[in-house]
Structures are given as structure tokens and as C-alpha cells.
Amino acid sequence: MELQSLIYLFVGISFTIYFGLALWTKSTSTKDFYIAKNSFTPISNGVSIAVDFISAVTFVALAGTISYIGFDGSAYIMGFTGGFVLLTLLIVPYLRKFGKFHLSEFIEARYYSRFARNITILIIIIVSFIYISAQMKGIGIVFSRIFQIDKEIALVVAIFVAFLYSLLGGIRQVTYTQIAQYIIILFAFITPIIFLCLEFTNGFLPHLALFSKTTFAFDTGIKVIPEGTFLLHVLDSSLEDFGFSYTKALGLLDIFTISLSLMLGVATLPHILVKFISTPSVNDSRKSAFWALIFIAIIYTTLSPLAALSKLNNIKHTQNVEYEAFINDEIKFQNDSPNNGKWLQTWQDIGEIKYIEKNNDGKIQINNSNSNELFINPDIQTLVNPEIANLPNWTIALILAGALAAALSTMTGLILITTNSILLLFVEKEIAYNSTKFKILSKLFLLIIISLATFFTIPYYSIIKTITISFTILAGTLFPIIVLGIFNKNITKEGAIVGLLTSLIFMLVYIIYFCFINNDINSSDEYLFGITPIGIGIIGAVLNFIVAIIVSKFTPKVPDDVILLIDNLRSPSINQKESL
């Protein structure tokens, strides 16, 4: 079947499954739209958590980013995975035992302050808004390829689809559809990597690709690397030939601060934490975390191999080929197999790939200098891999369907938590959940949030860097206050509020200045300690910890009922069935 028809077919089938499941499991009440009523087993909840965690960032952008920046990309893998471990061990058991739906309710109870609660809600809204904007960029890229339209038009289509999907999907429906989405994501993500492994290595398991050897002599255009060479050596040697410093870190401090900021931010992701309320007990929450780790690991352990294979895939199929003949599918390898290049023209028309002829030889040249002629947006590398490698058309259609599944699943949970946070600022939850006013306002806020987030852009920031900004804000604000609230009985409401405001104001000023006002910096000389905006969360967290502890020493003591609450949270009675 022709490629475009297959794309429509695969995407159409996947949407039919999602909307069918959403209608079949439709919420019976507005409250059920936002809370899943403890109705899921640890395995199903683990799948749902894994899909939320993977998102469009992992599926679309992460491997491409690692492929593009090399060693520095390890900061993202360490940050995301390490953060989930922190979340499951340090945060989840205690917040699940507390048993409330919204993170702000824990802050209000622990710090006996409605003002602290409102600050928390504001932070969640800011963070979720930035997170949604990154997801919408991913959806826009996928729609632009599916329909072969300009990205701006694709974003308008994305608004409509995201709004419709969010209307049908409450927390309950989302969990059911995410089980189907994980299956699609898994097959869509892994299948092209298996094909690449078979093409480049003597194995087929993506998770072991980095330890495999090549099955052919790899011609870089500068030298021929013999058959049987380890894949990592081929990668390193090839990139050195083209001037890339792929295995050399650009800044150890950046890697450290970005990794740590991501860890602390991931540990307090509100749309992930709410999923643990869907389990009957604290013990089931821990089981959900265990299963989620397994489902996440299946995907995440393929990211580094995919990044390496992507780089080699680009070199093999595009380096030193004649551009005009390539885009007209007239190029063949020495063994007479085709090296089709129509994909290059397609993605150029969309605006995600740029080819600029610089030496007038009519051939594509890839290197790490000013003479580089081909730039592939790292955000699309995973999506374009099957087309570059001339894989079967169904793999191209499958990966687009998988990317759409990854983006929509996470975005729905984010929109729900953001809408609920906004409404909590205006009306009491008990009234809101059962009122017509709540239903009308929630739909209005859904549309406003999606529309504004779609066209929000941080200049020069990719999807992965945009989403890291949201994590770094969480790292500096909510993580310290939650940890102190659980493990330190002496932190008062005054200490928590001043600590939150200090870190929030500091980070917002820093991010706004260096991302929007003075964003033409080519070196880190003007950064505080050389720390980029995406890694500033660790400094915000240190400020938060210090200020909260110091202020608490000079303010009235924590009330006795709050002390009892903390003692109850930290007691080992994990098998009881806590109700919402």
C-alpha cells in the first residue's frame, strides 16, 4: 500500500481505539473525571504511569537530542530515570498515605496555610503550561508529517484534536486508553530500532546494540572501517572524521546541574503523582511504581543505542550523495539496493530539515563546521529514521501513530491537572465537582490552556529543553517543601512560604532574563556559576532549603495536630486501605 494511505490507516485505527475506549469507560460523574476512585490494579496503573512518563519528549525528542549533542545527553537519561526512582522511594508512599487528590491539599494540611496552597497551585499551573506547550510542539510535528502541511497549520489542527480528546478523557478513561497506547508506543518505538540493528550489527536486540559488531565495512566517505568492528568504535571513529566531539563532555557542571534538577523535578511531577491515588493502598502504590519502572525501562534502555544508530544511519544514507538525484530516488548503493531520498524533500517542505548548498558540488556534506550542509532538527530524528533507512512503509506509518499516542496520553493528564488547579483557585472543590458552573468553566479553561500553550515558545529551545525548564522550576520549589514537610517536623508555614517565594522568584527572573531577554549568549560566562537556565533548579532548591530552615527557627512552632499528621504519614502501617 502507498505510504500516505498507510499513514492515514494506522493513525485512523489508533484514534478509533482511543476514542472507543474513552466512550466505553466514560466517567459517570465530574469527580470521576478527575479522580479514578482507586479502581485500578498495580499492573494497569503501572502501564498508565509509564505512558505518562514516556510522553512525546522520550518518543520524539530524547534519542534525537542524545544523537545530536552526544555525551552531554546522558544528563537527560540520568535525570529522568533517577528522578522516577526518587519519586517512588521518597515521595509516593507518604503522599499516597495522605490520600488526597491534589498536591496543594497536602501543602495546605502540612503547612496549615491556604496561602501556601495557592502558591503551590500557581507553580503547578506554570509548570504544566510549559510542559503542555512542549507536548503540543511534538503533536504539531507529527501532524505536519501526517498531512504534509506547514507546522503552524499543523498546530491549529493539534489544538482541535487535543481539545476533543481532552473532553472525552478523564482520569478514568485516560488510564484505560493508556494501556492500549503503551502497546502501540512499544511496538512503534522498538520496531524501527530492530530493523536498524539488523542493518548495522550482528544482533537484533536494541538493548544490546551498543555491544554488537558491524556486519559490513562502513564507508564514512573519508575512510573504510572494517567489518566486525564494535559499533561504538565505528561511531566514535566516524564522528571524529567529521569533526564531532561526540564522546567528550562540554561541561561537567552543566551535566551535574541538569541531571540533578531533572531528578528533583521528575520526583514532584503532579500528573504522575496523581496516578498513585488510583491505587487502593500505599502498598499497591509501591507495586504500581515497580511495574512502571519495568515498563519505562523497556523503552529507556533503547535510547542510547537508538541515538548511536541514528547518527550512523544519517551518515550512511546522506553523506556525500548527490542532492538532486537523491530526492528523486535515483541513488543506489554498491550492491544495487536503493537509497531513496524523497523523505528529504518532504521534511524540507515541512520546515524541519534544512539543506544549504555551500561548496557548489551538488553533494550533501555532513560535518561539525560551518561547511555543514544538512541540518536535521533533533526533535524529528526518531520519526525520520525509518525513512532515512528505507524501511518498509508500514514502519513509517507505525512510528507516526506511536508518536501521536505518546504525545496525546501525557498531554491529557497535564490538561486535567492544570484545569483542576485553576478552578481550585476560584471555588471550593466540594462545590465545584458537582456544579454546572464547574463543568462549563472546566471546558472553557481546557480550550484556553491548549490554545495558549500551543503558541508559547521559548526562543531557540527544542522540545527537550523546553520541558526541562518545567522540571527545573519544580526542582527548586515544590521538591524541597515536600521533602521538608515529610521529614522535618520543625518547618513552619512561614518558613515554607518564604522558601517557596524566594526560590520561585529567583528562578523565574533567571529563566525569563536568559531565555527571553538576553538569549543571544554564546558562552556561559554571564550565567551564575556558569549554570544554564535548564539547570538552575538545583540552586533554587538549595535556596529553598536554607531559607525555609532559617525562617522556621524564628517563627512560631508547628501546631500539635500537624505534628500528629507527620507522625501518621511516617508510620509503617502501609497495608491499610486509605480512602479519598
UniProtKB/TrEMBL annotation:
InterPro entries: Na/Glc_symporter_sf, Na/solute_symporter, Na/solute_symporter_VC_2705, Sodium:Solute_Symporter. It is found in: Membrane. One of its GO terms (cellular component) is plasma membrane. The keyword Signal does not apply. Keywords: Membrane, Transmembrane, Transmembrane helix, Transport. It is a multi-pass membrane protein. One of its GO terms (molecular function) is transmembrane transporter activity. The chain crosses the membrane at residues 6-25, 46-69, 75-95, 115-133, 153-171, 183-205, 255-277, 289-309, 395-428, 440-461, 467-487, 496-516, 528-551. NCBIfam families: Na_symport_lg. Belongs to the sodium:solute symporter (SSF) (TC 2.A.21) family. This is Cation:acetate symporter. It comes from Aliarcobacter cibarius. The lineage of its organism: Bacteria, Pseudomonadati, Campylobacterota, Epsilonproteobacteria, Campylobacterales.
